[in-house]
Amino acid sequence: MRPVRFNMARFKMARSAVVRVQRWLRESEGAFIVLAALVGGAAGLATLAQSWLAHAMQHVFYGVTINRLSALASIQHPWRLMALPLGGAGIVALGRWMARRGGAPVDVVEANALHGGRIPPGDNMVIAAQTIVSNGCGASVGLEATYAQMGGGIASLLGQRLNLRRADLRTLVGAGAGAGVGAAFGAPLAGAFYAFEIVIGSYSIGAVAPVIAASLAGVLVLRWLGVEPYLVALTVSRARTIFDYGAAVALGLICAWLGIVLMRLVTAAERVLQSVTRGSVWRPVLGGALLMPIAWLSPQALSAGHGALHLDLLTRPPVQFLLLILGLKIAASVISLASGFRGGLFFASLFIGSLAGQAFAEALNLAGLGAGLGVVFDPTDFALVGMAALCVSVIGGPMTLALLTLETTHDFSLMGVVLTAALIASAVTRETFGYSFSTWRLHVRGSDIRSPRDIGWMLGLTAARMMRRDFVAVPDDMTIAAFRQSVPPGSASKAILVDAAGGYRGIVPTAAAHDPTLDPAQSLASLARLTTVVLSPDSAIKPILGTFDEAGADELAVVDDAGRVIGVLTEKHARRRYLEEIEAAQKRMFGEG
């Protein structure tokens, strides 16, 4: 018995320590910053591990050693391209295992928008495995999605164990995701703004310190380990003229159009492939086979495109070559994502944007548009401008890309030109399309998400949570005289009319039934209103308020799937709860709740 008492005592001590840590994290901003920094360091290590695994696969399949896969001059042996359908088979196997688990995995943007930052641990591993296999076999997708996913997943797991408040958990998840991306690029400010613009969906003073601490920790961990960042670009430090800004506006418009076309092509191609394969789970294998001739034409279409981006910036190929690679890369990215390979378009859109920017600058110079004014448009400058503009169109986050350019080049004068194009691309995409790639994919699946802004509380504010159950129900075959005896004036404002099985038949205002001009023998059912307008228990607050507005009602019945009345909800109570939750959400956003 003595050992049992000893173990129970240790358990109670550990539980008490956890409670004290939870209270400390809730009350101390400094403690939360330290926690975010630890999460950032772990996210940096996760980024390194995932990158190593993907590159190890590329070494096995393609013999890549020092160079990146997309920087290869050619694929020496055609049989190596069998890695693409083989990778598709791996995605099929992972998909079947995931189907047994049930449901699609929750990504980091969806988690922060709908689930208060809660991500099931298994979902992180599934997304990471699918993305690493996709990138490792050469599919045209990037690893940045899984860097953000694993960083946010580590934060979510730790935050749930520590029972953090909803707002704190969302901030920590954003900080972890931003740390993973910032570590990959060696850009802590870009990582921090990735968290704010892409994952959290808002900027608040209370979140600045933990988010930046996490991003710094992720970058410093990789620098301490001697890991080179993804993107290194050198520019000539010079004054940018008004002509550079004017060209940036034009390039921003082009990149916005390219980004929208790219996102719509992915969805259209996905529908075509689903139709051709009749929904077969072997669609990724077909996608891998379709990628083989593209990769044979140019390996630059493979993987995310890190090596190809650096190679093209150094060699400055002609416009015709740039446009060819641009078309091949778009085709490869569309086929990869439409066929079921997992990954992001972050770096792929950077590469496509760099190709568009270089081709744009060289075309302007060849046309002699700046010659009369003594202006030469630098292809490297406009490659960076195009990278930012197209990536903003596809991913969102103009400040993220502007700071990424600044931290990569250390060229302050170029940042203004980049930000101009990025803002133009962002505004045009939001006005004409309205989605980033991640939210567009969720929208196609039927989600209401338009940004990472927290709307989970609205989905949780359902009719079942707000309704009251103490309603007056009367049978639908009752006469007005019987109703007057059963429900005297002042006892209830309305009564719910139900049939013998409890099914809803309408609402009867008490005052209307007590009208002395009515025949007492008349059936009560003749006074029933809103006989076809009801609420379901899982109706969210916005559809509820819309139903009240359309029906012009001040009270509605809540019925279950069998049509039985389980409660009633008034418009006044629904609107009050909605305003209370909005106020609470604003307090959480500013760190006051």
Structural commentary:
This protein is mostly helical. The protein folds into three domains: 2-224, Clc chloride channel, CATH 1.10.3080.10; 242-444, Clc chloride channel, CATH 1.10.3080.10; 456-588, CBS-domain (Roll). 65% of the residues lie in helices and 4% in strands. The protein is built from 24 helices and five strands. It has helices spanning 2-27, 29-62, 83-101, 108-114, 121-136, 144-161, 166-185, 188-200, 205-224, 242-277, 283-297, 306-315, 319-338, 346-367, 379-395, 398-409, 412-432, 437-444, 456-460, 463-466, 480-486, 510-513, 541-551, 571-589; strands at 473-475, 494-498, 504-509, 555-559, 565-570. It has a three-stranded mixed beta sheet. Strands 4-5 form a two-stranded antiparallel ribbon. Helix 2 packs antiparallel against helix 6, helix 2 (29-62) packs across helix 9 and helix 7 packs parallel to helix 9. The chain is elongated. 50% of the residues are buried.
Descriptive terms for the model:
Clc chloride channel; mainly alpha; elongated; CBS-domain; two-stranded antiparallel sheet
Please sum up the structure shown.
By secondary structure, the chain is mainly alpha-helical. It has helices at residues 2-27, 29-62, 83-101, 108-114, 121-136, 144-161, 166-185, 188-200, 205-224, 242-277, 283-297, 306-315, 319-338, 346-367, 379-395, 398-409, 412-432, 437-444, 456-460, 463-466, 480-486, 510-513, 541-551, 571-589; strands at 473-475, 494-498, 504-509, 555-559, 565-570.
Summarize the SSE layout with pairings.
Elements: H1 2-27, H2 29-62, H3 83-101, H4 108-114, H5 121-136, H6 144-161, H7 166-185, H8 188-200, H9 205-224, H10 242-277, H11 283-297, H12 306-315, H13 319-338, H14 346-367, H15 379-395, H16 398-409, H17 412-432, H18 437-444, H19 456-460, H20 463-466, E1 473-475, H21 480-486, E2 494-498, E3 504-509, H22 510-513, H23 541-551, E4 555-559, E5 565-570, H24 571-589
Parallel strand pairs: 1-2
Antiparallel strand pairs: 2-3, 4-5
